[in-house]
Amino acid sequence: MKLTAEISMYPFNEQYLEPIKWFIQRLDGYANIERKTNAMATQVCGEYADVMNMLAIEMQAAHEKFGKAAFVCKFIGGELDLSHSE
Q1: Cα–Cα dist 46/19, whole Å
Q2: Phi, psi at residue 80, to the nearest 5°?
Q3: Angle at 78 between CA 72 and CA 80, to 5 degrees
C-alpha cells in the first residue's frame, strides 16, 4: 500500500534554516521515496512501511543532531500526484 505524507519541521533554534535544509537533503537519500518541497512543507510518497521507517529514522537523526524540534505530519493512505497544482 502506498502512503503520502506532508511534513513540516520546526526547530527550536534561531538558526532554523540549516536543520530544515539538512533534513530535506537526507530525505533525498531514499531512492524509493518521492519528495516534493514547497515554501510551507515537504511531501513524500512511497510504500507505506518505507515512508514510516524513513520518518522514524530521519526525525530521530534530526533530534540527535539539532536537539528540540517539532514535526507536524499529515498522512493520506494512497499515492497522490505530488506534481499536481491548481
Answers
A1: 23
A2: -105, 150
A3: 75
In angstroms, the CA 39 to CA 20 distance is: 12
Beta pairing partners, 45: 4, 34
What is the grid cell recorded at 27? Answer: 530525505
Which tens digits make up the pLDDT trace of 42-79?
999 999 999 999 999 999 999 999 999 999 999 999 98
As a whole number of angstroms, the distance between CA 67 and CA 70 comes to 10
SS3 per-residue string spanning the chain: CEEEEEEEEEECCCCCHHHHHHHHHHHCCCCCCEEEECCCCEEEEEEHHHHHHHHHHHHHHHHHHHCCEEEEEEEEECCCCCCCCC
